[in-house]
Amino acid sequence: MRRFDMRLPASVRVAGNGFRDLLTETQNVSARGVFFYLDRPLAEGARIEVTMTFPPHVTLTEPVRVRFTARVVRVENSHSVSSIGVAAMIEEYEFLRSNTATEFGKPAIGS
Questions:
Q1: Which of 41, 42, 38, 40 is nearest to 25 (CA)?
Q2: CATH architecture for the domain at 4-98
Q3: Rounded distance between C-alpha atoms, residue 99 and residue 81, angstroms
């Protein structure tokens, strides 16, 4: 799949992590995957939930919020001790309504 360099804010939830959001920025996105950096390692095979907003210059319309579940397929240590690269394969996704306070209140994976 072709990857697109996209630096977009994202929140990541990890099953078994107390459902706390880890904030990050994507490095690249494809139709089947995403790559980003975190300040902690994730286990390969871990199931995660990522929420991000595609801006108008990408969608050619209004901003579009998307939440997807993915599986970590690769974890790589970067040159910086505080940055761990995470590559995840997208398994499912859903479009979220904009400006809805309950979007983050939905049950996370594993609940």
A1: 38
A2: Beta Barrel (2.40)
A3: 36
Reported as a single tens digit per residue, the pLDDT across 53-91 is 999 998 999 999 999 999 999 999 877 667 899 999 999
Burial environment of residue 3 by CB neighbours within 10 A (0 to 12, 13 to 18, 19 or more) = middle
Q: What is the pLDDT of residues 6-33, one digit of tens each?
A: 999 999 999 776 667 899 999 999 999 9
Residue listed under structure tokens 């859903």: 94
Q: Where do the structural domains in the chain lie, given as residue ranges?
A: 4-98
Euclidean distance between CA atoms 57 and 41, whole angstroms: 32
Considering only CA atoms, which of 94, 48, 107 is closest in space to residue 74? Answer: 48
DSSP 45: T
